[in-house]
Specification:
By secondary structure, the chain is mostly helical. The chain has six helices and no strands. This is Small ribosomal subunit protein mS41 SAM domain-containing protein. InterPro entries: SAM_Ribosomal_mS41. Pfam families: SAM_Ribosomal_mS41.
């Protein structure tokens, strides 16, 4: 009980003591600036995955279908294990709203 009161009082102090210039953090992702398709997504992932753009566009076709594609389907398309893992990792992050491809490509 005492801990609850202590934490409650301190949380009020912390929120009131922040300067007005600091932005509060939010768990909501920003709206996407660019329409994301398979080529933009794979270019955003990078690391050699973008070599499979033509294969995935011809076989899967739609980005929404790529988001629900399983590893066995990617394996049947002949995509190497490392690339499958990257694609599945970033599709999961994209679905959760934790990652999105950049609007402009990263310059090396």
């Amino acid at each position: 009980m005492a801990w609850r009161q202590f934490l409650f009082c301190n949380s009020k102090l912390l929120t009131n003591s922040l300067p007005s210039g600091f932005a509060s953090f939010s768990s909501k992702s920003n709206p996407y600036l660019v329409k994301v398709g398979i080529p933009e997504f794979l270019n955003g992932v990078g690391k050699g995955v973008e070599t499979h753009v033509e294969k995935l566009e011809s076989e899967i076709g739609d980005f929404s279908k790529l988001l629900v594609t399983r590893t066995l389907k990617l394996k049947k398309l002949g995509i190497p294990c490392k690339h499958r893992k990257l694609i599945l990792k970033y599709t999961h992050k994209y679905r959760l709203g934790l990652w999105r491809p950049r609007a402009e490509p990263v310059k090396a």
